[in-house]
């Protein structure tokens, strides 16, 4: 998926921002796991709520003025041509957890990775579905989205029962 090419519609642009955000967050969370035993290490995370508020603000602007406007925040800068710069923030809860119980810390990081992965998959699937709607000559993958299987290759993924 080419994240750099210009996007002509608002939904795609929002979804690409989610993909960029989740890619950055995944890298940060992996780093938290890799470095957890390094002396003086302080866990970081991406500003999840700040990003959600920025996306909500862009959607509200679109609803009011029919334009998508991304506003910079303390840790997020939106640039030209769809660029976005994210700054990680200290994760004080994870820091306290790491000091108290490394197993619980690791579980917490894994939970965050799973949540992040789910958000990424939803954005990827919405973007894929949107592109399929725009190009009607491509076959539908709705069954693949729901079951994780391609109904054209796996007859058990079909929604129709054989009687």
Quick synopsis:
This protein has helices at 10-34, 48-65, 92-100, 102-134, 142-147, and strands at residues 44-45, 76-78, 84-86, 89-90.
The number of distinct helices, counting runs of at least 4 residues, comes to 5
Give a short account of the largest sheet.
Answer: 2 strands, antiparallel
Across the major sheet, the strand order is: 1-4
What is the string of helix and strand elements?
HEHEEEHHH
What's the number of structural domains? 1
Based on CA atoms alone, the radius of gyration comes out at 19 Å
Q: CA-to-CA gap between the ends?
A: 40 Å
Q: Classify the helix fraction into a percent range.
A: 55-70%
Mean pLDDT, as a whole number?
A: 84
Number of beta-strand segments: 4
Structural class: mainly alpha
Uncertain regions spanning at least 5 consecutive residues: 1-7, 140-147, 149-163
DSSP strand content: 5-15%
Mind explaining what this structure looks like?
With 163 residues, the chain is mostly helical. The protein has one domain. It is built from five helices and four strands, in the order αβαβββααα. It has helices spanning 10-34, 48-65, 92-100, 102-134, 142-147, and strands at 44-45, 76-78, 84-86, 89-90. It has a two-stranded antiparallel sheet with strand order 1-4. A two-stranded antiparallel sheet has the order 2-3. Strand 2 and strand 3 (84-86) form a beta hairpin. Helix 1 runs antiparallel to helix 4 (102-134) and helix 3 packs antiparallel against helix 4. Mean pLDDT is 84; it is low at 1-7, 140-147 and 149-163.
Write the layout of secondary structure elements.
Blueprint (H helix, E strand, L loop, with lengths): L9 H25 L9 E2 L2 H18 L10 E3 L5 E3 L2 E2 L1 H9 L1 H33 L7 H6 L16
Antiparallel strand pairs: 1-4, 2-3
